[in-house]
Design goal:
Blueprint: H1 18-32, H2 45-52, E1 56-60, E2 70-73, E3 77-84, E4 89-95, E5 99-103, H3 104-107, H4 111-127, H5 140-143, H6 149-167, H7 170-182, H8 187-198, H9 202-211
Parallel strand pairs: 1-5
Antiparallel strand pairs: 2-5, 3-4
Helix pairs in contact: 1-6, 4-6, 8-9
């Protein structure tokens, strides 16, 4: 299994470049599915989470309005806040460390978006354990403490980059794009191909291609 690059800022935010995150995510993708670069296809994100990373996955309402898409729980807690739809109130449940909780509304929604949220939470689990050490919950606990907002923005960007790199491995995307260029495909057609090949949203495919400087 791939290892995260070590090297932290004073705040324990991992000091990773986009290229390092792409490499890390691709290593995890290949470690899970060795032929994914030669035969690009959607990664089974649920199987990856549960059987490759050893994560538990649960689905609950995280809020009354869907403002939280997913949360990673790093340590056991008896005070994880969820929203009880039937009682119309918040309540606490017990959750084990190493659990990813997906919001019920998100889980019922657009599959490619849910896949991205799950991959995003995998990124937190892999890259941000040190940052959240001593906190049970990614986001909730830290938002209540004196962590500066800039650090939270950085780790969210890192998790987004990891998700994109896991679902759309860099080398596979580059190879597919170059082959399509040779056959005269337009940018929109390349975006559609990446979207369909990896079961991601059009927006995620377009961002990925732009981040890799493959389309304008």
């Amino acid at each position: 299994m791939a290892e995260v690059y070590r090297g932290f800022k004073e705040t324990q935010v991992p000091n990773l470049t986009n290229e390092q995150i792409d490499e890390l995510a691709q290593n995890y993708a290949v470690g899970y599915c060795s032929s994914i670069l030669e035969k690009p296809r959607p990664i089974d994100i649920d199987d990856f989470m549960e059987f490759y990373l050893g994560l538990e996955v649960e689905v609950h309402f995280l809020s009354h309005n869907g403002m939280y898409l997913g949360v990673t729980v790093f340590e056991d807690t008896d005070f994880f806040p969820i929203y009880n739809l039937f009682k119309n109130q918040a309540e606490f449940i017990s959750v084990k460390g190493g659990t990813v909780i997906i919001d019920e509304l998100q889980d019922r929604g657009y599959e490619p978006r849910t896949r991205f949220t799950k991959a995003h939470e995998c990124g937190h689990f892999i890259m941000h354990k040190d940052f959240f050490q001593g906190s049970s919950i990614c986001l909730y606990s830290k938002c209540e403490s004196a962590i500066i907002a800039d650090d939270l923005k950085v780790i969210e960007r890192q998790a987004d980059r990891f998700a994109a790199g896991l679902l759309m491995p860099r080398d596979a995307v580059i190879d597919m794009s170059k082959r399509m260029w040779r056959y005269g495909y337009e940018d929109d057609e390349i975006v559609y191909c990446i979207q369909e090949t990896f079961n991601v949203s059009r927006q995620a495919a377009e961002y990925r291609l732009k981040d890799l400087d493959l389309i304008g």
